[in-house]
Design a protein that fits this description.
single chain, 5-stranded mixed beta sheet, alpha+beta, 5 strands
Amino acid sequence: MRYVRPVPATESVPPPTPGADPRPVPGQDPRVQWGLSLAVVGVGALTIRPMGLGGQGLAVAVLFVLNAAALLARALPEHRVPPRLALAWLTLGIAAAAALIGVSDSGTSYLFAYFIAGHIGYRLDTRRALVLAAACSLLCAAVLHFHLGPGDPELPWLLGLTTGVPVVVGILNRTQRRAVRSALSAAEAGERAARAEARTAVLTERGRIARDVHDVLAHSLAGINMQLELADALLDTGDLEKAREATTKAHGLVKESLKQAQWTVHALREDALPLLESLTAMAESAGHHDAVTVTGTVREPATRVTRGLLRIAQEALTNAARHAPGGRVDVGLTLTAESITLRVRNRPATRAVTPGAGSGMGLIGMRERVALLGGSVTAGPVTEGQDQGGWQVEAVIPG
């Protein structure tokens, strides 16, 4: 079985908050944004005129620096810029872009307005973005139409109206970004839920293995220990014959334990065991031939059901061998459309029974197994019929 590294089940993924998720989005490389911004700044520095240290040239230079700063600020992480600050920065950027169009005599000053308008749609919510983009278009168009500055006489005022159009591209990019981040968050939440489920499965499997180990070791080791303690006590009294008898019984319990361990290891390694064949082999290995009877149509239930039934049968056969040595054992399997019933009944012992208390965990383990499968189990003495004085274990499992 492959174990998955568990994570706390209480760990969860917070819902995506617009502008507050610093994780990169696949398909959006920040280096591309930096490259475009630097390209616009470089082209503007080479083409926008006049630039100088006095008069109109100084005004153009100052406005160029403001536009370059507003454009390069696009690279600032969204979660580090409060919404109000972003609104103020982009509003000032629009004003600076319109002013640069109005005071420059030539060049590509309008590019700053286009790129800032596009970033408005990406950075702000839709309502504010559309309002600010409309203001950008009207402001730039007014500067060109009314000749509010020296301006570039070759730029038509209709060009100013189009400066707000890139806001649509920005809105689409923002919508796509949020959709991708929501998908990533959902995928992470699903992965963590799967890991938590795998952790639960691991714990359940550990419980099952613990019950299997108990079925094999608890009773047998307790019986072996009891016989060895008895042998030690008999040796102290000098009763060698009875001490030899106790060690012989201990050897018998060791052989029985090895046989049960083989069944357990075999079941743990197998994904699915044939129910009827496994029950028959298990009964024969315990010395009970022709002990299995089947009522109904034989079918292979789910693996976990088969595994649970085999464990219950193993526990019942082990208890019968320990508490009713020599007594006949009958294993009944009844299959209906609604349920599967396993009944293991043993007759009274025909040989001497070695006294000793069990661990009390056998029946508890049976009940735990059946409860996990949604069924029920009963165990108790047989009070009537030819098997009176014996013991019966009956498990009923749905399916």
